[in-house]
């Protein structure tokens, strides 16, 4: 290995690419790991969830190496790894999961019971998610490799579609999970809140699941223009705070079969200020009786920058009685990536799901990560893919 470098969180609003320690076969608590591999990272993406930490909206500690969206090449493996070989190109689910506990065996890998001593669920480079080192770096260690890693079947084919396949680690399965949990199927009328990368991935997932109409709402004009360009019905939320009217302008009625919240806890209202529960309340208003709401957008248990004391501990003012009265179904939580990533890989490889174009992926150097974070945080209609080795930029 050459010297490792990675994206390090320093303080709210500040990250740097720094020299970091080379990965070792050790868990965060120091235990030796023989079921892991070390990857040379080929692509690693900037996620909206990372932005929450960089903005100071979590309790992330200084010195945290960021990055949970990882695709890489295996360069070393532990003695207990049987199904993965050196040289394989693999997609890494953002969930760190053991594959052995009760929840992992039911494919609920977002809440693995063994990889995080603080609570159920682990992830790379994320606050309160077990201390696993992030993958916005040249090299990273992945534990429980046989269970976690998705081997991409053909090296040349994988590299040719790396801009699409890099989305398998998080945002594509997350959007797909939101659509599945919202009950999207053939003929569904769907509304997606948020035209960022996860919202676009949810919209693309709804389309491949057979939705008749997919609407996507946002205040950001550039993101709405891109959503329209890639074939979705753009809903400009700046026009009115009555979302049902905007939906009726498109489909003739003020309700939908399925709604997907791809915004999360930093939601803003029509007046411009933060209203962390506004999207959830709107979802209940516009979703038909007995309809379903998928919530892949992030909600946290601690938010130092929240607008009030209740929101600081994740307590939101929900009109839950409306959802109860309408017999609606809700599904929240981190996406269990292994439940979906193999079939989504097939859709990509067989040209059914051009997700890189849909989310407007842009490859940049790892060394330009700080600029990518800043541009993304300003609302750019792009998904930034970091290239630690230069291989993707060289091939462009």
Describe it.
The protein is an alpha/beta fold and 396 residues long. It has two domains: 5-170 and 337-395, Quinone Oxidoreductase, Chain A, domain 1 (Alpha-Beta Complex); 172-331, 3-Layer(aba) Sandwich (Rossmann fold), CATH 3.40.50. Helices cover 27% and strands 22% of the residues. The chain is built from 15 helices and 17 strands. The chain has helices at residues 48-54, 102-105, 145-148, 155-160, 162-165, 171-181, 197-208, 221-229, 243-251, 278-286, 320-325, 341-349, 355-358, 369-377, 391-395; strands spanning 5-11, 14-19, 37-45, 70-77, 89-92, 95-96, 122-123, 139-142, 150-151, 189-193, 213-218, 233-236, 256-261, 287-294, 329-331, 361-365, 383-387. Strands 3, 4, 5, 8, 9, 16 and 17 form a seven-stranded mixed β-sheet that branches. A hairpin with a 2-residue loop joins β1 and β2. The model has no long low-confidence stretch (mean pLDDT 96).
């Amino acid at each position: 290995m050459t010297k490792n470098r990675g994206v390090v969180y320093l303080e709210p609003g500040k990250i740097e690419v720094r020299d970091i320690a080379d990965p070792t076969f050790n868990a965060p608590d120091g235990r030796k790991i023989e079921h892991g591999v070390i990857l040379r990272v080929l692509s690693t993406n900037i996620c909206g969830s990372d932005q929450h930490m960089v903005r100071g909206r979590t309790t992330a500690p200084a010195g945290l190496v960021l990055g949970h969206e990882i695709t890489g090449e295996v360069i070393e493996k532990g003695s207990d790894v049987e199904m993965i070989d050196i040289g394989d190109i693999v997609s890494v689910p953002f969930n760190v999961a053991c594959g052995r506990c009760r929840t992992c065996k039911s494919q609920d890998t977002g809440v693995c019971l063994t990889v995080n001593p603080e609570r159920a669920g682990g992830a790379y480079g994320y606050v309160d998610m077990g201390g696993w080192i992030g993958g916005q770096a040249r090299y990273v260690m992945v534990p429980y490799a046989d269970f976690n890693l998705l081997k991409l079947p053909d090296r040349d084919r994988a590299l040719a579609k790396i801009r699409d396949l890099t989305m398998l680690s998080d945002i594509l399965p997350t959007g797909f999970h939101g659509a599945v949990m919202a009950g999207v199927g053939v003929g569904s009328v769907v509304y997606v809140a948020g035209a960022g990368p996860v919202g676009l991935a949810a919209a693309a997932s709804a389309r491949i699941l057979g939705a008749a109409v997919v609407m996507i709402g946002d205040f950001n004009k550039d993101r709405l223009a891109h959503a329209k360009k890639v074939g979705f019905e753009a809903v400009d939320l700046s026009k009115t705070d009555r979302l049902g009217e905007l939906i009726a302008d498109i489909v003739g009625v003020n309700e939908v079969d399925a709604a997907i919240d791809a915004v999360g806890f930093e939601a803003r209202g029509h007046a411009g200020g933060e209203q962390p529960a506004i999207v959830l309340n709107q979802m209940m208003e516009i979703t038909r009786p007995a309809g379903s709401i998928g919530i892949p957008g992030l909600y946290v248990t601690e938010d130092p920058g929240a607008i009030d004391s209740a929101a600081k501990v994740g307590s939101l003012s929900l009109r839950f009685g409306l959802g109860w009265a309408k017999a609606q179904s809700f599904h929240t939580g981190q996406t269990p990536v292994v439940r979906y990533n193999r079939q989504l890989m097939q859709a990509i490889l067989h040209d059914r799901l051009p997700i890189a174009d849909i989310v407007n992926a842009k490859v940049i150097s790892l060394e330009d990560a700080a600029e990518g974070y800043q541009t993304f945080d300003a609302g750019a209609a792009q998904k930034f893919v970091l290239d630690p080795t230069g291989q993707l930029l060289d091939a462009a």
